[in-house]
Amino acid sequence: MRPLPPLDPPPTDGVLALRRWRPADVPQIAAACVDPEIQRWTLVPAGYEERDARDFLARGDAGWTDGTLASLAVVAVDDPATVLGAVGFGRPDWQTGRAGEAGYWVVPAARGRGVASGGLELLTRWAFGALGLRRLELQVIAGNVASERVAVRAGYRRVGVDTATTKQGEVAVTVFARDAALPLRAVILPSADRPTPAAPVSAPSTARFPRRP
Ligand SMILES: CC(C)(COP(=O)(O)OP(=O)(O)OC[C@H]1O[C@@H](n2cnc3c(N)ncnc32)[C@H](O)[C@@H]1OP(=O)(O)O)[C@@H](O)C(=O)NCCC(=O)NCCS
After folding, report:
1. Looking at the record, which segments are called Disordered (predicted)?
2. Measured in angstroms, how far is the CA atom of residue 147 from the centroid of ligand 1?
3. What domains lie within the chain, and their CATH numbers?
4. Beta bridge partner(s), residue 135
5. How confident is the model over 20-50, as pLDDT tens digits?
6. Confidence of residue 168 (pLDDT cuts 50, 70, 90)
7. Residue 38: how many other CB atoms lie within 10 Å
C-alpha cells in the first residue's frame, strides 16, 4: 500500500479547510462524540472518552501511512484550531479507483451552516483530484434525513439500499455515490421517497459559512 500524500495545498474553498488531526484536537473530538446524534448515526464507540479520541487519531495516522484511511478535520480558514467536524473515507481500492466508504460528523454548535456538505465536497474533490480516485460511496442509516441531505448537497446520488452492522445491530442503509466521471447534477428523488424532516434544522449561530449555490 502507498501512503497518502501530504495535504499540500490543504483542500479549501476559502472559508472551510481540511487538515490532518492534531493531538491537541483530542478534547474537542471527545466532547463532540458524546453527542446523541453522533452516537445514534455513526459507529463511534458508546461512552466516548479521550482515550477513544486518541485511538481515532492513531488509526488515522496508521491509515494515512498505509493508504487505507483518510481521516481529516474540517475547520474554518480563519480559526484552524477549532474543530468544526470530521470527514474521511476508508478502504480505497487503488486498482479500481473506488473508495470503500466516506463518513462525517459535525460538532453540534456548528450544525446548519454547511460544514458537513462543504467538508464532504472538499474531501471528494481532493480524493478525485490529488488521489485520482474515481468513486466515493456513503452509507446512511435509514431515517438520518440530515445526512441524506448532506450527501445530495455534496453531489452524491442515491444508488441503492443495503444493510450494515451498527451499534444497534443490523440496520437498513441508503447507499449514495459520487463518480468523478459523471457530471454534477441535482438529484431529484421521486416524491414518495423524498425524506420528511423529523427534526428542525439547528438554527445557524452565525452566517460564517455561507451556503453554496
Ligand atoms: C448530519 C450532519 C453531519 C449535518 O451536518 P451540517 O453541517 O449541519 O449539515 P449542512 O449544514 O452541510 O446541511 C446540508 C443539508 O442538510 C440539511 N440538514 C442539516 N441538518 C438537518 C436536520 N437536522 N434535519 C433536516 N435537514 C438537515 C440542511 O438543511 C442542508 O440541506 P439543503 O442542502 O437542502 O440546504 C450533522 O447533523 C451530524 O453530525 N449528525 C450526526 C452524525 C451523522 O449523522 N453523521 C453522518 C453519518 S452517515
Report:
1. 194-213
2. 5
3. 16-137 (3.40.630.30)
4. 98, 179
5. 999 999 999 999 999 999 999 999 999 999 9
6. confident
7. 18
